[in-house]
């Protein structure tokens, strides 16, 4: 009785590429989306100091209204996190990312 032959473990994906190869394409896109998101969040503070924006919204010299505008935006931003978390759990990160990026634009 001989030793049974063991099939070699498959290497890479079905297309013959190593599993890490796809990250060479996805990682830059993910990093770019993250950077744009961080710039978008910083934009809230920058807008509050932008004289042109404040003048167009009739908020020059009204710090309480500027604070209220910033607070309301951040409250809605915070309230959306559990909603998006639930949607990601239900529908998956890829679909929710695509929907979020589409709505963002």
Describe what this molecule looks like in 3D.
By secondary structure, the chain is mainly α. The chain has one domain. 70% of the residues lie in helices and 0% in strands. The longest helix is centred in the last third of the chain and has 29 residues. The mean pLDDT is 80.
Task: Itemize the secondary structure elements and their pairings.
Blueprint: H1 23-49, H2 51-56, H3 63-91, H4 93-104
Helix pairs in contact: 3-4
Q: Could you tell me the number of beta strands?
A: 0
Poorly predicted parts: none
How large a portion of the residues is in β-strands, by DSSP E?
Answer: under 5%
The string of secondary-structure elements, in order, is HHHH
Can you give the mean pLDDT? 80
Assembly state (oligomeric) = single chain
Q: What is the terminal separation in angstroms?
A: 67 Å
Number of domains: 1
Shape: elongated
Largest sheet: none
Question: How many helix segments?
Answer: 4
Task: Return Rg in Å.
Answer: 24 Å
Which class best fits the helix and strand makeup? mainly alpha
The helical percent reads: over 70%
């Amino acid at each position: 009785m001989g030793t049974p032959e063991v099939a070699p473990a498959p290497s890479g994906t079905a297309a013959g590429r190593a599993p890490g190869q796809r990250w060479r394409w996805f990682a830059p896109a993910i990093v770019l989306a993250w950077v744009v998101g961080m710039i978008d969040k910083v934009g809230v503070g920058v807008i509050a100091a932008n004289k042109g924006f404040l003048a167009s919204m009739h908020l020059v010299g009204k710090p309480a209204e500027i604070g209220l505008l910033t607070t309301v935006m951040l409250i809605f931003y915070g309230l959306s996190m559990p909603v998006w978390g639930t949607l990601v759990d239900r529908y998956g990160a890829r679909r929710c990312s695509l929907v979020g990026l589409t709505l963002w634009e």
